Amino acid sequence: MPLDPYFAPISPWSAGLGCHCPRCGRGPLFKGFLDLAPSCTACGLDYGFADSGDGPAVFVILFGGFVVVALAFWVEVTFEPPLWVHALLWIPAILVVTLGLLRPFKGVMVALQYRNKAAEGRLDSHTP
Q1: What residues form the membrane-spanning segments (predicted)?
Q2: Gap between the Cα atoms of 74 and 88, Å rounded
Q3: 127 φ/ψ sector (left φ>0, alpha ψ -120 to 50, else beta)
Q4: Interhelix angle for 55-79 vs 83-115, to 10°?
Q5: pLDDT tens across 50-104, in order?
Q6: What is the DSSP-derived secondary structure letter of residue 41?
Q7: Which of 101, 123, 9 is nearest to 55 (CA)?
Q8: What are phi and psi of 90, to 5 degrees?
Q9: Burial of 29 (0-12, 13-18, 19+ CB in 10 A)
Q10: Cα(29)–Cα(106) distance, rounded to whole angstroms?
């Protein structure tokens, strides 16, 4: 029975935010903008276990929406600009915030799945 190589535990936050492998912290996690690579090029970890679903998008919407809406309210109350200024400010801001955070948040979700050995729920097949 071959033993698996030992990898020192790394923080899922540093691996996820850096978009690196959750086991070794060196190999890339993504092959495209949001597409996971099939496996780590450094340690060979198969990323088939990872299914972050809509979790990263929900967190990005909640966090990014809070920040941008709070800033929009502050600008409205402080400066009272016309509507076109709001459109000019907040449409690019929400795009930058959401697209900028989506990849690192997905990386964190995958790293947390690896760290906590998260898997799909299974029912026992035995009958009493």
Answers
A1: 57-77, 83-102
A2: 16
A3: beta
A4: 150
A5: 988 899 999 999 999 999 999 999 999 999 999 999 999 999 999 999 999 999 9
A6: T
A7: 101
A8: -90, -25
A9: buried
A10: 10
